[in-house]
Design a protein that fits this description.
The strands form four sheets. Strands 3-6-10 form a three-stranded antiparallel β-sheet, with no helix packed on it. Strands 8-7-9 form a three-stranded antiparallel β-sheet. By secondary structure, it is of the alpha+beta class. The chain has a domain of 196 residues. 28% of the residues lie in helices and 10% in strands. It is built from twelve helices and ten strands.
C-alpha cells in the first residue's frame, strides 16, 4: 500500500517507475504463491485469504470459495479434440510473440467487441500499464451480415469468411498496427473453426441467411433447471445457436441474443447470458464452455437455504 494512503498515480506523467516507487515505503506487499488448497473444494488460495478466526490456531480454513463445503459444483471431465502441437507451444510460453500479443490475437477471433471508454489520463508509456474505465464496460455484437460496402468484423467474419487465408487477411486488416503473425493467426483460426460451436454454427448459416432474408440468428443462453455439465463444458452448435424467423416472438427470452440479418446497430449483451464470456474470449474458452448464471442452484439445496449462486 502507498505510505501516505493516497492515490499513487493521478496523471500520465506520474506513471513511471521512479514516481511510483517513491510513494512506497518498501516494495509492494506480496501474498506469496497461490498454492494453499481449500480442504473442501480443492480451490488454490493464497495463505493470507484463510479465515481470520482460525489463523491463530494455524488451521487453514477458507470460506469465500465454497462456504466451507456448503456449496458444491459438479466436475466436468470430457475428452476434447487434441490441439496441434504448434498451438500448444504458444500457450506454454515458447513463442514470445504470441504471449506478448495474446490480447490482440483473442480480439481478432472474438465474436463480440468491447464497448468501453478508456481513461487515458493514467496510461503512462514508461510506467505500469493501467487500464482504467470511465463509465460502463459492455460486450457488443452487430448483425449477422455486414451492411453494404462494409468490411465484416467479429462474428460477421465467421459467417462470410472462407475459412482460410482470405479470412485471416480480413481479421488482420483490423489490427494492422500490431504486426501480428499470419502463420499464428491461421493456426488459431483453424483450431476454432474445428472445435468452437459458435464458429461452426455461423459458418454453416451463411448460405441460409443469404437465400432467406426473413431469417435471423439466435445465440442461446442455456436454460435453468437440470444442469448437464458436459453441455456446459463442451456444447454442440445446436445447444448455443439457432436460426429463427423474424416473425417469431422472442420477447419472453430476454437473455437470448438476436442477430438481425443486416443493420448498422450494435447490441449490448447481458452478462446474465451463459454465452457472455465464451463469445468474447474464444482463446480462453475455445470449446465454447458456458458460464454459470444466476439461475444455477447448488446441489446442496436441502442443506443450504441460500442455494442460488
Amino acid at each position: 500500500m502507498a505510505s501516505n494512503k493516497k492515490v499513487v498515480c493521478r496523471a500520465s506523467n506520474e506513471n513511471n517507475q521512479a514516481t511510483i516507487l517513491g510513494k512506497f515505503q518498501d516494495l509492494p506487499y506480496r501474498l506469496g504463491e497461490q498454492n494453499h488448497e481449500c480442504q473442501h473444494c480443492g480451490a488454490l488460495r493464497w495463505g493470507e485469504e484463510r479465515t481470520k478466526l482460525k489463523s491463530k490456531h494455524q488451521e487453514e480454513t477458507y470460506s469465500n470459495c465454497c462456504q466451507q463445503g456448503s456449496v458444491t459444483l459438479p466436475w466436468g471431465e470430457f475428452e476434447g479434440p487434441t490441439l496441434p502441437d504448434s498451438l500448444l507451444k504458444l500457450y506454454t510460453g515458447e513463442d514470445k510473440e504470441f504471449q506478448d500479443n495474446i490480447t490482440h490475437y483473442n480480439n481478432t477471433l472474438s465474436f463480440t467487441s468491447l464497448g468501453v471508454k478508456v481513461d487515458q489520463s493514467v496510461a503512462g508509456q514508461k510506467g505500469i500499464n493501467t487500464f482504467r474505465v470511465s463509465g460502463q464496460l459492455a460486450h457488443r455484437i452487430g448483425s449477422a451480415l455486414p451492411a453494404a460496402k462494409k468490411i465484416p468484423s467479429f462474428a460477421q467474419i465467421y459467417v462470410v469468411g472462407d475459412g482460410g487465408e482470405g479470412e485471416v487477411d480480413v481479421r488482420l486488416g483490423h489490427f494492422k498496427k500490431n504486426n501480428l503473425s499470419k502463420e499464428i493467426m491461421l493456426e488459431l483460426q483453424n483450431v476454432l473453426n474445428d472445435v468452437n460451436p459458435y464458429a461452426e454454427f455461423l459458418k454453416s448459416s451463411a448460405t441460409v441467411l443469404e437465400s432467406r432474408p426473413s431469417l435471423r440468428i439466435m445465440l442461446k443462453t442455456l436454460p435453468p433447471g437440470k444442469r448437464e455439465v458436459k453441455t456446459y463444458n463442451k456444447p454442440r452448435p445446436q445447444d448455443v445457436a439457432a436460426i429463427v424467423e423474424s416473425s417469431e416472438n422472442l420477447d419472453d427470452k430476454p437473455r437470448h441474443i438476436i442477430l438481425h440479418r443486416k443493420n448498422n446497430k450494435l447490441k449490448h449483451i447481458t452478462d446474465l447470458s451463459t454465452g457472455y464470456l465464451p463469445l468474447r474470449y474464444p482463446l480462453m474458452l475455445p470449446f465454447g464452455s458456458q458460464q454459470w448464471d444466476d439461475d444455477y442452484v447448488s446441489p446442496t439445496v436441502k442443506q443450504n437455504n441460500k442455494s442460488e449462486l
